[in-house]
Prior knowledge:
The protein is of the alpha+beta class and 352 residues long. It contains six helices and 17 strands.
Amino acid sequence: MKIHYLVILGLFVLNVSWAQEKKFMVHTVAFYNVENLFDTIRDPKIFDEEWTPKGAQAWVGTKYNKKIKNLAEVISQIGTDENKNMPTVLGVAEVENRAVLEDLVKAPQLLAGDYGIVHYDSPDKRGIDVGLIYQKKHFTPTHTANIPLYIYAPNEKSKEEGTKNKRVYTRDQLLVTGLLDGEEINFIVNHWPSRSGGEKKSSPFREAAATLNKKIIDSLYMINPNAKIITMGDLNDGPYNKSIKEVLGAKGKRELVDKKGLFNPMEQMSKDGIGTLAYRDAWDIFDQIVLSEPLLGSDYSSFTYWKARVYKKPFMVQKTGAFTGYPLRNSNGEVGYSDHFPVYVYLIKQVN
Length: 352
């Protein structure tokens, strides 16, 4: 009995020692709705009057520069609790143009990341777009595309489009395929239609966005049945809404994800009361990162999903007033961060 016990103990020590020697490469993939990242220049093609020096926000250079600094401060820290490196890949929403992204990646806090940019102008009437920034030393884009979302307001005829209902111009969906340290990963960045006019009335627009997103994902699966896909963004719906649960078909539990299916780690967060934005003192998690089934394996010889988080630190939170506890956004002429908290996932890969 004593010898048997010592053998078992010895095997246990060897297994623990072997496990401790394992080393993993870790990459943070994040999404952040940066809320109204406008420059100060009037663009007559869009409705950006509010975000100019003479507009309602009195949006002058000092405010713009502080906004850039604030956002860079947040981005530089996302995921660094368990990964020394700032995000390798970051999807963003509510940026006016490529120029504001160029200013953002040039901020001192982000210079070490040496970020590249993928951006296309969307037809959104306010001029806000989605984009992607990435660390050039780790990620190399091989294909990019902006895929338009065609949605139409009912019972509103358009002279230019004849008998069709009037088109609602919104954000394109951005597809970026590339090599993450040599391994192909596909990223889709989204900012689905808002709840303007009410959740129920506007729901078909987000369901149309989910349909488009599912078509993109299915097309990637057709090219490669083992495609690693991350679709992320401000979906303006929670993980429990029809657009995500039924149309996109994302599952909240890994064990329920079928071959070529999708996993949404934010569903459990929602059930746990975790949110990324608040409205009338109710929290929701519109900012989500959804992963394809090939990212869920237990074989860490290639990049695999590890865990998901919402990034929320005290300096990003409103401390006083009616909105105490909410994300600290621009208010009363003061420059904040955003009305959303960013979300992120870790991808890991065994390197020995």
